[in-house]
Structures are given as C-alpha cells and as structure tokens.
Amino acid sequence: MAEFLSGNSVWLYFLIFFGKITEVTIATLRIVLINRGERVQGAFLAFFEIIIWLFITGTVLAGFQNNPLKIVVFALAFALGNYLGSWLENKIALGLITVQVITSEESADILTNQIRSDQIAVTVLDGHGMGGERKILLIHLKRNRLNATVKLINRTCPDCVISVSDIKMLRGGYIKK
Hints:
This protein is an alpha+beta fold. It has 6 helices and 4 strands; from the N terminus they run H-H-H-H-E-H-E-E-H-E. The longest helix has 26 residues, at about 10-35.
C-alpha cells in the first residue's frame, strides 16, 4: 500500500483528484451548515472531511518532491471542489431567507393575494419613499422556494424592488413545510 501511495500510478492521481474534490465539497457544506446553526450536522460532516483530508494530503506529501504532478492534481481538485461544493449547496438551498418587496399601493394588494394563494405568508407594511407612498412586503420562507417566489413576484409586479437576505434564526410565523 505504501508503495502505491508514493508511486506514479494513474489510479493514484484519480484517487487524489476525486478524494480532494469530495473532501472540499464536504467542507463547503459543513461551513454552510455551521453558519446556519446546524452544528450537529456540521460536526458529523467534519468527521468524514478530516479523515479524507488526512488520507489525501498524506498521499500527496508522500514523495511530492519527486512527483510535482501530485501537487498540481491536488490544487486542481481543491479548486474544483470549491466550485462543486458551492454549486451543490445552492441546489440543496439550506436555510431560511427573507424576501422584501417594495411596490406601489395598487400592486401590493394583487401581489399579496398571489403570494398568499401560493401558500406563502406575507406581512404588508406602509412605506414612504422618494416616489411617494409604497407598500413593503416581508416574506420569510425556505431558501429552496426562492426561485419560484421571485418568478411569481416578477410575473405579478415587474416594476417592484426585491431584496433577499439570509436568516440565521426565525422564531414564530408561518413557513410551509
């Protein structure tokens, strides 16, 4: 085994490449989970992440002076793992968000009814802006519902202002499961 790990086999490069991609992807998901308050799941992923990291990094360090290609493969996999981790996290869409919509008083009623008919809770506030009286709609929802909700808002009220913020914690309210 030690001979394989310090050798030049094409399989060794595949092991380094895909192992590092897996490790960095797990690391990205772990960081997101911890930042969103999911410490137990983050710690669970950290266990597997560090096992893979130790194995892959040890493999690269074994004879890298004589085989610089290991370093290049390791670095490429690190970069690709970051990309894949962030892509996967975006697809999984963990966590909660607040969508804030600023619109005219006329459009607010129509938009509020549309949003509520899609089983999404919305709070409507009065606002005063440079353009006059406005309505501010506050919507809390799971991140995986963002794209559909923004499409609904754009379809109903194309001239509104939309901002989205991550939520670390939410207590109370109504969020569809």
